[in-house]
Design a protein that fits this description.
Length: 365
């Protein structure tokens, strides 16, 4: 009798164990199914961006991209991630003049800030050598001066992590990991990083009011240079930093060097067109107070130095932007000391504190 009861008990336990295991597998299967729920951006005053039809951002795709952005396994010695040179606290850039890679080597250009990429319309990097953001995303991984890794090794390391196999399944419908999916996920995450809530934006919405110095700076920023009418003359910044994103999405020579002194050919290195000599991407001025040093080579440490460059330090060259020739030939912008302070004060209103504190962009590990 006891043996019969023991057998029945074991049989019941086995049945219960199988039932629990089956339920667990059902739950795991449900969790690992693809989820293509669209990711919604908070765009503030901006128009909603148009994304590539083959990579519409999804919640799970952005989550995967965020994991990869902070993943140090993407570097050869597993010490650096994308976020190492694009830190959230610094508006997703590096405040060093030139970032150091895993071998202690540096490049020749300052790291660019990563935000509002969703509205970018003219390629990526200072010289525009990457056509799409997904193309840009893989280049630092393979660059010997940066993360110095090859893509097969990256894929092998990610495949060894169940968390990544699961997340690729959620984002793309299968646990297969390849370079294209990595680039698409990184593109989705970087496109999700938006900066739309500065004091300037709040002032435009009537939520706050700029003080008198900031208002003077705003006037100078948007007003054209007009030496014949000093009281009406401005700094003419909006010619290059127009639009709601404070960039005209072009490549320009902003009078940093003469032809003889020019050592970085910029856009010309990509196009082989002499007319592009010394031209670089016009970056957004949003969060500019958080992203020193300035220019493609980080030559200016402060905003005051940047303003003084346009006020009195511009140099002529064969490809200088035409809008800069007029002030250059008239002794610079002729800004007073107070005007220069006002212009810097206005630039600081473009800082978006939400960008630095938004947990959706932070390290997920």
């Amino acid at each position: 009798m006891k043996q019969t009861n023991l057998f029945i008990g074991l049989l019941s336990f086995t049945a219960l164990f199988v039932l629990i295991q089956g339920c667990q597998k059902d739950v795991e299967s449900a969790e690992l199914s693809a989820d293509f729920t669209p990711y919604q951006l908070n765009v503030g005053r901006f128009d909603y961006p148009v994304f590539s039809s083959d990579n519409q951002p999804t919640v799970q795709g952005v989550n995967l991209g965020r994991m990869l952005f902070y993943e140090k396994k993407l570097s050869a010695n597993q010490t650096q991630s994308c976020a190492s040179c694009h830190r959230q606290a610094d508006a997703f850039t590096d405040t060093a003049q030139f970032s150091k890679g895993i071998r202690g080597l540096t490049g020749k250009r300052n790291a660019m800030a990563i935000f509002n990429m969703a509205w970018n319309t003219n390629n990526f990097f200072w010289d525009g050598r990457a056509y799409l953001l997904r193309h840009q995303s893989l280049m630092p991984i393979q660059d010997p001066l940066e993360m110095d890794e090859n893509l097969p090794n990256v894929i092998r390391k990610l495949k060894g992590e169940k968390a990544y196999r699961d997340q690729f399944t959620r984002a793309f419908g299968s646990e297969e990991i390849n370079a294209e999916k990595i680039s698409l996920a990184l593109e989705q995450f970087m496109n999700s990083i938006v900066s739309v809530n500065s004091r300037f934006d709040k002032a435009e919405l009537g939520l706050v009011q700029l003080d008198s110095i900031e208002e003077r700076g705003r006037f100078l920023f948007f007003a054209e240079f007009n030496p014949g009418f000093p009281n009406l003359s401005g700094a003419d910044c909006a010619h290059c930093h127009s639009s709601i994103n404070f960039s005209n999405n072009r490549y320009l020579n902003n009078a940093l060097d003469t032809d003889a002194d020019m050592t970085d050919m910029g856009r010309m290195d990509v196009t082989n067109n002499p007319n592009d000599k010394g031209k670089f991407k016009v970056t957004s001025l949003r969060n500019i107070a958080l992203t020193p040093p300035y220019m493609h080579d980080g030559r200016f440490k402060t905003l005051e130095e940047v303003v003084e460059h346009y006020n009195s330090g511009m140099k002529n060259s064969s490809t200088i932007d035409p809008t800069l020739i007029y002030p250059l030939n008239n002794g610079g912008l002729q800004l007073s000391g107070d005007d220069k302070k006002a212009l810097v004060a206005f630039l600081k209103t473009l800082t978006d504190d939400d960008l630095m504190t938004n947990s959706a962009y932070s390290d997920p590990f």
